[in-house]
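Lab notebook, bench 4. Still working through the backlog of constructs that have no structural model yet. Next entry is a single chain of 123 residues. Request: give me the structure tokens for it.
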Amino acid sequence: MKKVSIKKPFFITSIFFMSLLVVFTSTKSFVSSKMISYEYSWQKEIKNIDNKIEELEKLKRGYKSESIKHKNQAQRLQFQNGELQTAKKHWQLADENSRIVLRIEKKIDELKIQKKEIISKNS
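Model written out:
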């Protein structure tokens, strides 16, 4: 009859539990790293939206100032002799710039709504 050592089953059992421990801890870190990357992804998305809003605000200010400049020029020229056509051109440019400003404002509003939805979804 062969003598079975107690050390062998203990060794096999301990290896089994050690492997379970390794699997459990690696799964836990994998899940937490996924959660962290998800958290960073929506925060990055918020940051990107903020950057887009800031760029659009700058663009809007530029078009708004151009619109005001053309309106002022048109108002000044409309009563000068022979400058009515030039004044009309400035009115048209002012209107075009105002329409662009409205489109930019609409896009900014859409981005703000998108940002609000992302924040409420992840809070």
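Notes after review: DSSP finds two helices and no strands in the chain. The first helix runs from residue 7 to 77. Flag for follow-up if needed.
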